[in-house]
Amino acid sequence: MESWVGHEVPRLPGKGQPLALYDSARRAVHPGPAAGTATMYVCGITPYDATHLGHAATMIAFDLVNRAWRDAGLDVAYVQNVTDVDDPLLERAARDREDWVVLAMRETALFREDMESLRIIPPTHYVGAVESIPAIAGRIAWLLDDGAAYRLDDGSGDVYFDISAAPRFGYESNLDRPQMLALFAERGGDPDRAGKRDPLDPLLWRGARDGEPAWPGGEALGPGRPGWHIECAVIALNLLGDTIDVQGGGNDLLFPHHECSAAHAERLTGAAPFARHYVHAGMIGLDGEKMSKSKGNLVFVSRLRADGVEPMALRLALLADHYRADRQWTDDLLKIAQQRLGRWREAVSAPAGPPADALLAEVRARIADDLDTPGALAAVDAWADATLAGTATDPAAPALAASIVDALLGVAL
Ligand code: 5CA
Ligand code: ZN
To answer: What per-residue confidence (pLDDT) applies to 172?
Structure first.
């Protein structure tokens, strides 16, 4: 499907260093690719409601990965999906007596606008689940043939993945079985479904039901629609190859989503691990609770924009803390970001500043260290303070500082 329109990214002098990122599977920071093409798959929205600040924070975190890789001289192949058919979308459409296709199209269009306003570099491929169904069905049929999947014999046409076909199951999330069972039930799984070989077996194909959309699944599957985890596995494999550098999303996807996607992909290709880095952004919450569509405690990007809040201030507010930290959204956070934005703008409009080469080196070093944005913002703050003190003499510094902030942090001053 169509992506959104990007803004030009300034080229900075020299080259950034290779980016090191925390990998959830190895539970440590490890260096990423140093040359060639870096590949990233990020789990995108289920479009049944507008983009909230949690989605924005996660998209901004992976946008920084994209920017750091480019600055380090890498080519980037970046794929993001849209889960444009799934239970929550169909349930919301039914509740509001709306056509689910219209709902998905409208919210996806709004997401694109929000991403553009936040200066998120568009993915190389922006891909819907629906348009990927033939490819997904083909891969599920292969898993059935392989013996890694099985059909329930209750006439439903539902097909499940047999997790015993994934001997390393659990390596990505590092959870024990009771923890997995609890999260599986909480996050869309069906541990109690009769006829499954293991309560943790995830759904690959849901046979057609009355009143639900269905697509042809070929001889092996019959009509139905794909499960969630296989969707992301297949889209990533088909567009990025058997092994990818980063599998990304919020930390609510650690289990079961990314664990199951990895298990599917590794069984399909024989290559392990599926991702060299499983990277998870922290949850943005409001009033002590995770911001989520199902809880309804949402602050929408589009609402704030309509109220006249500058997207660049939103972006700065979400960069103020480390991407992996679960954190709360507050009005104060936004106020501080607005003040900071004003101060930085004043500084880059000054006739001269302290030479910005040291700033470039510092911001690059901070970002390369698992996206240390608090450190990067502190470095820009210090440069802005020195500039506004008015004693510095390099007339080229303000323009370079503006380019650094634009290219590496995605904030246009
Ligand atoms: N369509 C699936 C992924 S395949 C999905 O999780 N959709 S979503 O709309 O619920 O979330 C979209 C992205 O935002 C995911 O990467 C998710 O992990 C992330 N996300 C959701 N809620 C939050 C939150 N409160 N804070 C930070 N990130 C969030
Ligand atoms: Zn996903």
So the answer is: 98
